[in-house]
Amino acid sequence: MLNSLKNDLIRSTNNQNDDDNDNDNDDFKEPATTITSESGIDDDYESTSSSSSEQCPTKYLPTLEEFYDGQSIFITGGTGFVGKVLIEKLLYEFPTLNKIYIMLRPKSGQLIRRRLEELTECQVFERIRRQYPERLQKLYAVSGDIRYPGLGINPIDLQTIRDNVSIIFHSAATIRFDEPLKYALLINTLGTKRVVQLAKKLKNLRSFVHVSTAYCTVNKQKIDECVYFEPISPDKILEMADWMNDDTMNRLSETLYRGRPCSYHYTKSLAEHLLAEEVANGCFYPSTTTSNTTIDDDDNIESNDIIWRPFPAAIVRPSIITPSLNEPFPGWVDNYNGFTGFLVVSGKGILRSMNVQKEYQCDLIPVDVVINTCILSSWYVAVHHYKHSKFPPTLTTTATTTTTSTTTNNRKCLDNNEIFVVNCVTGSHNPVTWNQLRDISMPLMCRYPSMEMFRVPNVRFHRSKMLNQINVYLEHTIPAFVVDFLFKFMGFTPILDQVYQKVHRVTDALEFFTTNEWTYTGNNMLRLLEAAEDVYRNQRKNDENLYGKKQQKQSTMMMNNVSERFPIDMRKLNWPDYFHDYILGVRRFLLKEDPATIPRAQNQLFLIYTGTMMAKILFTGTVCYQLAYPQSIVRQSLKMLNTKTNNQYLTSNNILSTIQSLFSIPMLSTNK
């Protein structure tokens, strides 16, 4: 009966829409008026009546400004790369936000307030400090840690969050590839479960956005925008981790990963599985706490003691996150993770060889595009959530009974009609290969070199693993040995061998991703943008009817340009232009090198190039001379050095004496 009533309400609403009925099944082309329910959307409805039948309450879909107006947001991972850009974007675009609660992990000897001050002093907030410094007062620090039950939040702050917060962005995670499985489960999976539990206790939850990764299901070749279930449920895995030690869990890891390279991707997949189950279960509230709620709405079901509501959630899956495209400024970055670390070590001439299938795609996504996708997804699932949720199969009659959904049993995945998943990738619309990125980046790194250049940038990609190992020995191991020997000889600490050990650990971890390729469906990014544009387009038409074409509200004209304020259409991305800003951003924000030093760095690069060529010529000439004259001066020099030093450390006197005896230099020699 409830389902039939819901269908009648939707049908009566669609009859008022001027759009073609063939578009009703399109996820992003919503009617101009639609039913709203207890999802946090305003309850001011425009009720109309007809002589034939009573029409349902309707309301135009809210714009982004209307949706975020007066809302309080809770963010985990706010001190991370993604979290900082998210906070900055929210403060800049939505001045009418109420508050942003940022969960910060407490540090010994440091007040949580001081940690918030350090966060706001970051360079990413330069635009806010310069234009709207008063908006920084909207930030509120919450002491907490996802490793602890209840997120480690004190009862006072917890009650404040329950009463005020309506939107949650969850981006806290450990992204280390070598993290032990048990610890990765604690952060990425159990931490997500605890944040979801908090979200379900909010009095006015509008939307929940979980930042995952596009590589959580790398054991599949094609990855659709849906949640793939693991053979063993997350709850059972967490129970195992609770009583097993680290060694036992690590022994089971290869079986559990099912083709994944490390714990990060597996635990993020478990987190998606867990969130999908929570979405299927929905939210249950005691009717006594929701006495003011209109339970006749189409998305509410009332039993004797509980009320069920859908859990509006979205999963955003970014690929390899790279510096910003436009905001807060082009090329901003604050870490060496992912492709940025590869760019730094290759730009300094340290990395010379990698095992890469160079014709494969390298999927990179700018951080501000990820943030725009999260902001639009939060709005989308809130105003369209009735299409992405289902009624529970059964309802208990007491609020204390634990209700579990059976809709997810024996299933491999949840499709997009149940939970909204966005593959935030570029490969589906604007692909670029590893070889293309190398050809783009190498000339730019020579054009804007680093002040800490070791060799001329020139990294080579090899399909053959054996050929790569040979090249690594010639280009990495031997030069590191020679340079460290010279450093030790001159009294300095040898460091290059340690640097290459770290580089090799990173390249070995990335080899799985440089030698494999995946196909992603990325339609929902375009759907988000088109859905937002449709809302602004409809609002503009309404304003024209109310005020006339010449008297449109100024705010409507500004809000119409949503595609420029929240650019997520990767078809417009120009890779050479982006990498120009990318390399300059790495040089400025990460290496802390002033743009004024570029000419001096270019001169250093020229000297390094000249010295390298001379060394190659000298080495080649020496080898040829040795082959032509076996009893050459080089062999005599080595023999006399061995005799002169008598297996002791080389000293300046020994070297000078050897040179004198070899060449009989008149001004140095005492015996002609």
UniProtKB/TrEMBL annotation:
Q: Locate the compositionally biased regions of type Acidic residues.
A: 17-27
The enzyme's main class, written as a single word, is oxidoreductase
Instruction: Give the matching SUPFAM superfamilies.
Output: NAD(P)-binding Rossmann-fold domains (SSF51735)
Instruction: Please provide, in alphabetical order, the Gene Ontology terms of the cellular component aspect for this entry.
Output: peroxisome
Compositional bias of kind Polar residues: 1-13
**Which keywords does UniProt give here?**
Lipid biosynthesis, Lipid metabolism, NADP, Oxidoreductase
Domain Thioester reductase (TE) intervals: 75-279, 311-373
EC id = 1.2.1.84
Output the GO biological process annotations, alphabetical, semicolon-separated.
long-chain fatty-acyl-CoA metabolic process
Which part of the chain is the Fatty acyl-CoA reductase C-terminal domain? 476-534
Q: Which protein is depicted?
A: Fatty acyl-CoA reductase
Which source organism? Answer: Dermatophagoides pteronyssinus (European house dust mite)
